[in-house]
Amino acid sequence: MEQKVFVVEGRQFRTKGDYARAVHDKELIDKLRKETDLQDKAQLEKLKADLKKGTYRFMTLLEQDFRDEVDELIRNAGAGKKTSGKKGSRNAKQQGAGKSGLSPGGIDASKQSQGEPEIDDAVKEELQKRERRRKLIIAACSVAAVCCLGYFGIYTYYDYRTNSTYEALSDLRLNRLPTTAAPAPAATPQFTLDETAPEPKEVLEEFKTLLNKNQKLIGWLKIDDTNIDYPVMQTSDNEYYLDHNLNQEYDKNGSIFMDKDCDVLQPSTNFILYGHHMKSGQMFGNLDRYSSEAYYKEHPYIQFDTIYERGTYQVMYVFRSHVYSEEEIAFKYYQFIDVNSEKEFDSYMQEMAAMSYYDTGVTAEYGDQLLTLSTCDYQEKDGRFVVVAKKIAKE
């Protein structure tokens, strides 16, 4: 079967795709010829410079032919000759070829003429391919936009639900605060986390209603003039409250929770509280603001009330750390829950003081109750941002 050969500007192209690109180049060349005075050397020099810089996008060898044509026109213009350039020579070749009845590709001119509809189909096919690609790109972008909007909607919903839930819980707790310092009636029921505890304590009035909602509630954390105003949970599984709230619903914000090995009934030396570092600022999302000493001076106190007693804590140390492997020998603040001696306590204090961003002037002694707030820090792998405070006497 004889292969079709398409001719543009005297050059042969054997595929429909090449022909479509050549047609594109020819249209561009015709446009430049029309816009340029081919007898004006200055205009020709400018056109040559533009072609050299790649100002115009060509797709075939017609670009080089056109450059040669412009060079010839410039030479002839400099010699004072008039010429129609290579276009004329190529047209002459085509005319000569027409006299012999053959195209430059060796195809009968009448057959080439009969092939015109196929040439038009090639251009049409190329345009259709481009249109399909354009539609696919638009469809892909539309799907991505819908997914992004969906994620944003879910993210917004969870933030709204979290805010609403904790505002309602805060109101419920505050409405239960006693108006006087008088002790609760003797008939008030008692709650403990450990049924075997030898000395059960009286639950504060403000927590009794909340405890009916979830027996895993262990206290409430609040820092004035910040968004931190949350219930604190505790369970034997340190993973559960990473993605659940007080109502035991799935919540990507999770909850503030106390380390499973801490004890508020028979208080451990250190209460360690964990919370997510949310980009929205929820939970401990803004805790790392304590890296600024100015921020610390504006927020030196932390209120942490367990379900049994109220407590005010003063910030001592602020530092960054990370989770170490089990075999690494290093100070692991997240394992500092209880101590066996004053020497061990002082050693921990020295470790944290050395890592602290600034000196608060606050120190602790063996026997003091400590509070540690811990959240993720993204400055390093498995990084953590930590604020340590000690309980102080009420003024």
Considering the chains and any ligands shown, give keywords for the structure:
395 residues, alpha+beta, eight-stranded mixed beta barrel, 9 helices
Characterization of the model:
The chain is of the alpha+beta class and 395 residues long. The chain is built from nine helices and ten strands. The chain has helices at residues 16-35, 41-53, 62-78, 85-99, 109-114, 116-175, 205-213, 293-298, 342-355; strands at residues 6-8, 11-13, 217-222, 229-233, 256-258, 270-274, 301-306, 312-322, 370-377, 383-392. The chain is elongated and about 110 Å long.
Brief account:
By secondary structure, the chain is α+β, with helices and mostly antiparallel strands.
Helix content: 40-55%
Order of helices and strands: EEHHHHHHHEEEEHEEHEE
Mean pLDDT: 82
**What's the number of extended β-strand segments?**
10
Question: Layout of SSEs?
Answer:
Blueprint: E1 6-8, E2 11-13, H1 16-35, H2 41-53, H3 62-78, H4 85-99, H5 109-114, H6 116-175, H7 205-213, E3 217-222, E4 229-233, E5 256-258, E6 270-274, H8 293-298, E7 301-306, E8 312-322, H9 342-355, E9 370-377, E10 383-392
Helix pairs in contact: 1-6, 2-3, 6-7
